[in-house]
Specification:
The complex is a heterodimer of chains A (497) and B (336). Chain A is α+β, with helices and mostly antiparallel strands and 497 residues long. Helices cover 18% and strands 45% of the residues of chain A. Chain A has helices at 2-24, 28-52, 56-93, 198-201; strands at residues 96-100, 103-107, 113-129, 139-153, 157-164, 171-182, 185-192, 223-232, 237-244, 262-269, 283-295, 305-307, 313-316, 334-350, 353-368, 371-387, 413-424, 445-460, 463-478, 481-482, 486-496. In chain A, the strands form two sheets. Chain A has a 16-stranded antiparallel beta barrel. A two-stranded antiparallel sheet of chain A has the order 12-13. The chains are: A alpha+beta (497), B alpha/beta (336).
Chain lengths: 497, 336
């Protein structure tokens, strides 16, 4: 089919040209004109297209301008980057000022120098209800006013200074230096709490009750010495061992009256603290022991007295009485040899429930009128608590989920607590005649038992209101027999950070 | 009896504690260096630690600190406990000796080659194809050209760059200081940004794509080509440049205090050993040990070099004239 199509087209085209030529003589100008016009139009289009498109030079100039703008933008961005780097470097060198839940602080940029300022204040009220007469006047008092200054240099070395202005007197409670070489090996030197009593080792701001229980009467408060301590077995066991000047039961000291020293060692374990599923995860159990050879004299007994929760003395050894015109001097009791304390202890916390117990036996050789006796005094306590608002109970206090906010319906945390505590003085203390016995049962009780209940309202982690009622019963201690039961209502408003 | 017993226990506990500290101890050195030596000292440290452990039976961990040389020297003067300093130029170590009193004034005489185990020089790094047709120093002062170089106030490399340019201008103008100043002033008019160190300038040029030419340590330029490939940047070797001699030394007061003198000195001596020199060559620094230098000869371009002593009368004079506060650099450089 294609064979005949092409010749046919050619024939038609030839005929067209012939016809065109035949009539061409009448229209030659028109055709040429049209062709010329077409040519002109093509030129115009070309020139327009050329006018629309930049020349090579123009292209280069535009690219250069764009590149210059891009360079300027990049330079500005880089300058900004360098300024940011410089600002960051400067910030790294600047000291860091902190104000927060751990107090106020100032730290060098490299962390080598750190200074922290903390503290707490306790405003108490005590209302006594004794027998016929109140054992002490009802009173408001500032129980503890303790600013705390802590610091560290080169991270491994630190210090702490804590004075106390409570009760209107100024004392240094803590003043020590630390060498924290590793979690397992720390050295502390200065004045601090020897590692013996469980409740004594708790901070005064974290106590369950306003006043500590009877075992604290039989352990040292603060002493000057040197201690090694650390956490081992992934922190499950804490050990502490130290050598100290030696202070009487419940006492504090800044100086030593003799060259004999007390040695104290304590091991406390929280064996299941990392076992999240274990019921006994919050169990801590420990044993403390101290020993020394401490003596006094008839003039300076170097012996303790014991206080009730209401901070009233209910036991003291017989003191030397001075001679009068009609009577000779009667020598009193004094420490005369070995002193030894043993203190098993534990706590347990599970959710909002808390339990704390400790037992202390304190042996001290005591002499009077040439007779030496090994006095064994004992004390124990069992305290329990329940956080009504559901927060976790802890040896370090309660952290309310919803801190108290006035008018916002947020009330903080509430905790109830109860305890039983007893101190028993060795019967040997009361044996003998008026001139040989170590204590007078008509003025010193041989046993005191305290029953306490409490309600703690934690406004937030840093402030709380505590209401306690303590009732203490005695055996002996009064001319008529048993000393009157002491009933005390305590309140405490505490703010600390 | 119990007291004696406790005395013994106390002694045992204390001894055990001290022993445990000793057992955990390892020798550490801090090498405070200038900006572009990171890769070099990573290699040197690994090799030296291996050798020291084999010979001295002691584990050594070498920490590195890098930054602009002047900044680094100031940090050491201000208390950064460097066992050794390996800086870009002798002046900064002189400052540590003079202001910090941490080492003797004659420190530079203690090791061979003026305590410089390696040398380097200053070259140009340009973009692939050298689109701005940069061939030598005069090209850098053409209007519209963008030159990248760090700040001579903080960077040792930048001071070498500056002096290389000044030295060229002196030679090209018959030691005419006025013309040299004019030349360098024009050059710094083309500098849009001053990084604090040489590595920062490399980042500006290579990574941020800023500028037409980077004045660079030869080792830094060769490293850039090695890492980026010749399809991105290329080196232009000027007709003349400066012989840079970065020195090293132990910091006497620090090593005596930290009881690290022996290992610190061995560390620096290692730089002069064939093994150390080989690592120096591999990292594009010019070795000073002839046999090793010969091995690496081909990787370094041939360039006529002048030294600072001959042209500027030494670092102390150069520093005072050009880089001290109110010096020539402060007079000619105007922030853009």
């Amino acid at each position: 089919m294609r064979v005949w199509v092409i010749p046919a087209i050619l024939a038609v085209a030839g005929a067209s040209l012939a016809i065109s030529a035949a009539y061409g003589q009448d229209t030659p100008a028109t055709t040429q004109e049209l062709l010329r016009r077409i040519e002109q139009l093509e030129q115009k289009i070309q020139s327009l297209e050329q006018a629309k498109q930049p020349t090579v030079d123009e292209k280069g100039r535009q690219a250069e301008a764009i590149e210059q703008v891009e360079q300027k933008i990049k330079i500005l961005e880089r300058k900004r980057e360098l300024e940011d780097e410089a600002a960051q470097a400067k910030a790294k060198e600047a000291p860091i000022v902190r104000a927060g839940k751990d107090g106020f602080g100032l730290r060098s940029a490299d962390g080598n120098f750190d200074l922290r300022l903390r503290g707490y204040v306790q405003a108490d009220a005590r209302f006594y209800q004794g027998g016929e007469t109140d054992p002490a006047p009802d009173t408001f008092l500032m129980r503890r006013i303790r600013p705390i200054i802590e610091g560290s240099v080169f991270k491994q070395f630190g210090f702490r200074i804590m004075p106390d202005f409570g009760g209107g007197t100024a004392t240094i409670q803590d003043a020590y230096v630390d060498g924290n070489f590793s979690p397992a090996f720390k050295v502390r030197a200065g004045k601090f709490k020897p590692p013996v009593g469980l409740e004594r080792l708790q901070s005064g701001s974290e106590l369950l009750f306003v006043e500590r229980a009877f075992p604290t009467n039989l352990v040292p408060n603060r002493d000057v010495g040197l201690q090694l301590s650390g956490d081992v077995f992934d922190g499950a066991v804490n050990y502490a061992a130290g050598i100290f000047n030696g202070v009487i039961d419940g006492g504090s000291g800044d100086n030593d009256a003799n060259s004999d020293k007390d040695y104290a060692v304590r091991v406390f374990a929280e064996p299941l603290k990392d076992k999240e599923d274990s019921t006994l995860r919050g169990l801590g159990i420990g044993l403390a022991y101290s020993t020394g050879d401490q003596s006094g004299s008839a003039a300076t007994s170097n012996l303790p007295r014991f206080l009730t929760p209401g901070q009233q003395s209910f036991f003291s050894y017989v003191a030397t009485t001075a001679a009068t015109a009609t009577t000779p001097s009667v020598p009193g009791a004094f420490a005369d040899g070995s002193r030894e304390r043993i203190a098993p202890q534990f706590y347990f916390h599970k959710g909002p429930f808390g339990l704390l117990g400790e037992y202390v036996r304190s042996n001290q050789e005591v002499s009077r009128a040439g007779v030496r006796r090994d006095v064994k005094n004992t004390a124990w306590q069992l305290a329990t608590s329940l956080v009504l608002t559901g927060e976790d109970a802890s040896i370090r206090g309660i952290n309310p989920r919803k801190p108290f906010q006035w008018g916002q319906g947020s009330w903080g945390a509430f905790e109830i607590a109860a305890r039983v505590s007893r101190l028993e003085v060795d019967d040997d203390v009361f044996a003998g005649s008026a001139t040989t016995r170590l204590a007078n049962p008509r003025s010193s009780a041989r046993e005191a038992t305290d029953y306490g209940i409490g309600l703690n309202w934690y406004f937030n982690r840093f402030s709380k209101l505590v209401v306690n009622y303590d009732q203490t019963e005695f055996k002996d201690g009064a001319a008529s027999g048993d000393r009157d039961t002491e009933k005390v209502l305590f309140t405490r408003f505490q703010v600390g950070y | 009896m119990p007291i004696k017993w406790l005395n013994r226990i106390s002694a045992i506990v204390l001894s055990a504690g001290l022993l445990s500290i000793a057992a955990r101890a390892e020798v550490t050195l801090l090498n405070v260096s200038y900006d572009p030596t990171r890769e070099l000292y990573q290699d040197i440290n690994a090799a030296f630690a291996k050798r020291w452990e084999a010979s001295a039976k002691e584990k050594v961990v070498i920490k590195q600190s890098h930054g602009g040389a002047a900044k680094q020297a100031r940090a050491v003067i201000d208390g950064l406990e460097a066992d050794v300093v390996t800086l870009a130029l002798a002046y900064d170590i002189d400052e540590i000796a003079a202001r910090g009193k941490l080492l003797p004034k004659e420190w530079q005489k203690r090791l061979p080659h003026n305590s410089s185990p390696y040398t380097s020089t200053i070259v140009f790094l340009v973009r692939k194809g050298n689109p701005r047709a940069i061939k030598d120093w005069p090209d850098l002062v053409k209007p519209g050209l963008s030159v990248i170089t760090p700040n001579p106030k903080t960077s040792g490399g930048a001071r070498w760059n500056y002096l290389a340019a000044w030295g060229y201008a002196l030679k090209a103008n018959g030691n005419d200081e006025g013309k040299a100043r004019e030349f360098v002033t024009k050059l710094y008019k083309n500098v849009p940004i001053l990084d604090s160190g040489a590595r920062g300038s490399t980042t500006t040029f290579v990574e941020r794509g800023i500028g037409d030419v980077l004045l660079a340590w030869e080792n830094e330029a060769l490293l850039a080509i090695k890492e980026l490939g010749p399809e991105k940047v290329e080196i232009v070797v000027p007709s003349v440049s400066i012989l840079a001699e970065p020195p090293v030394t132990v910091v006497d007061k620090v090593v005596d205090k930290r009881k690290t003198r022996k290992v610190a000195e061995a560390y620096l001596e290692f730089l002069y050993s064939p093994e150390g020199q080989d690592l120096i060559g591999k990292n594009f620094y010019r070795p000073t040990l002839a046999e090793v230098a010969a091995r690496y000869e081909k990787q370094f371009p041939k360039v006529a070099l002048f030294n600072i002593e001959d042209v500027f009368g030494g670092w102390q004079k150069a520093q005072k004239t050009h880089f001290a506060d109110g010096g020539l650099f402060d007079q000619i450089y105007q922030k853009q």
